[in-house]
Amino acid sequence: MKRLYQKLFILGAVLCMSACEAKNDEEKIVEEIKEIEMEEVVQPDSLLRHVVMFKFKDSTSPEKIQEVVDAFAALPSKIEQIKGFEWGTNNSPEGLNDGLTHVFTLTFHSEEGRAIYLPHPDHKAFGAVLGDSIDKVVVVDYWTH
Amino acid sequence: MKRLYQKLFILGAVLCMSACEAKNDEEKIVEEIKEIEMEEVVQPDSLLRHVVMFKFKDSTSPEKIQEVVDAFAALPSKIEQIKGFEWGTNNSPEGLNDGLTHVFTLTFHSEEGRAIYLPHPDHKAFGAVLGDSIDKVVVVDYWTH
């Protein structure tokens, strides 16, 4: 009988260790959920969109256009105030694009963030990449409703 | 000594039950994480943005502008192909908005969705609300990168 209880004790101890491990896993998972929830909380109700549209000059080469796209797309990794970035080329069938072919939408969380971005050295350096490749640029910013 | 092992056995049994409970909690949490991930999976990798920008005529009244905004904002509840909608008024300090003051960004999940939207009776009815209130309209669509 004593040996049985000894065995049961060992079994109990093993189960206890397993329980501790499960608890640890659970804590890790709960931590991950909290992080996911935090990210959602950090996202404000309204976002400041900054929509930049280009019409390139007819003389601008495809290589130069690619260089501009790459340089623009590199800005979010350099300027932390840029909270979102997407871009694409116009494919509207409506023919109302006024010659604009390239769209870049940046997202800020505040007008202060935009105020840091606009004169930022890395943004200025991007302007230098643009050079005289652009025929027309239209920029509209808006707080999302 | 026997009583000690008995007590330890009972302790082990209690810990075992606690472990089972922890495992159940863990399973529930893992299930929740899977659900969160599933929601993300439903969102496609790339989205079709449809950006509509208006410059209203100087003669257009604020009431008419509000009517246009309300009619546009009502479209997502009428046309299921519209998967996202946001709008706002230009507040860019750069002065490059080319007179455009109102921005509406619709999101589609496919070009088929957009092809249903464009000639949709409710979209046509919105066009009738616009009437002759608009001085200029610019539309750019792009698949997000």
From TrEMBL, chains A, B:
Assigned keywords, A-Z: Signal
Protein name, entry field: Stress-response A/B barrel domain-containing protein
InterPro entries: Dabb, Dimeric_a/b-barrel, HS1/DABB1-like
SMART domains: Dabb
Domain Stress-response A/B barrel: 48-142
Subunit structure, as described in the record: Homodimer.
Signal peptide location: 1-22
Record-linked Pfam families: Dabb
